[in-house]
Amino acid sequence: MKTICIITSYFPPETGAASNRMAHMAHGLTKQGYNVTVITPLPNYPTGKVFKPFKGQFKHTSIENNITIHRLWIYASNSKNKIKRLIAMLSYSFSLVWFFLFNKLPYKIIVQSPPLLVAFTCMLFLRKSNHKLILNVSDLWPIAGLELGTFKKNFSYKVLEKIEHYNYKKAHLVLGQSDEILSHITSIHPKKETFLYRNYPDFKPLPIQSTFNERGKIRIVYAGLLGHAQGIYKLCKELDYTNIEFHIYGMGAEQDEIKTYISKHKELPIFYHGGVSREELHVALKTYDITIIPLLNRIYGSVPSKIFEYARLGLPIIYFGGGEGETIIKKYALGWIAASGNYNDLNHVINSISLSKLDANVKSDIQKRALKHFDFEKQLKSLSKVL
Question: What interhelical angle do 376-386 and 17-31 show, nearest 10?
């Protein structure tokens, strides 16, 4: 049987797009006939604390859905302090080195990046071994950090840039979730073998249902990480609520600010529903009219995986993030575009949407296009040919 190992910093039972896409990849490869092993930290995201069933353990190994999962020790933290975040990444890197020294790995290894330092650890310690190293790049760091304001162009940035280039150089194959990512990589290493690997979801789509709101307002929903990059707190303050309700699902750094804002502005139709499981979320999303996918700043190379997930659910999308995501929304007629960072334009777009036209047929058409063009299994079969 073909064997492959996936090294990732996020994996279920953790929630969020990163863990979901790596789980999809692992399960998809098992369907393609691979014996899959996953190496990941003890689950701790997004709380920054190791989940109760795994507390006090240095290593936990289990077999779940025919996938062998090795969960390694990490100094867990979701602190805004850069030093603590660095220590957390380094602690997982140390655990990986320990694992490499005492365990035999399959020939093919997929390494998730970011985090850059974790990917660097894998590329550095496995570079001379008899392995095919496949780098799966979901976001471009440190460029994304620069655009988000996390980094400045100083000595530290140059070091991270060198690490980034080293990772690309040592990878035998690079998977990128966007054309922008692949263009960036080939601008550095023109002869590098690459493969466009979109973050398509893999779940059975739920039947479309009509929505009805007795208050006559469009129900807009956001579901996902409540981090600074998404800017949901600012969105709460900037939206025109004349014709809408705004519903929020998720957890993250901004959740306390959002809850406080809602409590101080009870006259506004903003509803925070907390974090729920992915299955519960999919059922809840069926009851809304539109979803919004925002980014506080346009991030080069980023294509939110929510685009493909919500389209599969048949949910019309307002995209407010710029970049390649806009191209996908337009190309496949998945919803509306608002100019990135322009809240006046966003409100103009929302106010131009007619609730009467948001019927089941609109949702059904979006779902059909998603099923046709965002086919996870077809993509996996193509990937298997190049692995």
Answer: 70
DSSP secondary structure letter of residue 42: P
Residues 218/358, Cβ–Cβ less than 8 Å = yes
Residue 337's DSSP bridge partners are 319
* DSSP structure string for 201-246: --SPPPPP-----TT--EEEEEES---TTTTHHHHHHH---SSEEE
State how far the Cα of 383 lies from the Cα of 176, in Å rounded to an integer.
12
- pTM equals 0.86
Q: What is the pLDDT of residues 6-27, one digit of tens each?
A: 999 999 998 877 888 899 999 9
Nearest to 14 by CA among 251, 353, 243: 251
Cβ atoms of 83 and 288 closer than 8 Å: no
CATH topology match: 2-201+375-386 vs 218-373: yes
Rounded distance between C-alpha atoms, residue 270 and residue 266, angstroms:
8
Q: Which residues lie closer than 8 Å to 281 by C-beta, 6 or more apart?
A: 223, 249
> Cα separation of 240 and 205, whole Å?
32
**Which pLDDT tens digit goes with each residue over 238-257?**
999 999 999 999 988 899 99
Q: Report the alpha-carbon distance of residue 116 to residue 129 in Å, rounded.
A: 20
State how far the Cα of 6 lies from the Cα of 135, in Å rounded to an integer. 10
Tell me if 317 sits within 8 A of 220, measured CB to CB: no
CB atoms < 10 A from the CB of 222, how many? 21
Q: How far apart are the first and last CA of the chain?
A: 14
Q: Is 174 helix (H, G, I), strand (E, B) or coil?
A: strand
- Boundaries of every domain in the chain: 2-201+375-386, 218-373
DSSP-assigned letter for residue 39: E
d(CA 59, CA 339): 47
Instruction: Look up the CATH superfamily of 218-373.
Output: Glycogen Phosphorylase B; (3.40.50.2000)
Q: Are strands 290-294 and 34-41 parallel, antiparallel or unpaired?
A: unpaired
CATH topology of domain 2-201+375-386: Rossmann fold (3.40.50)
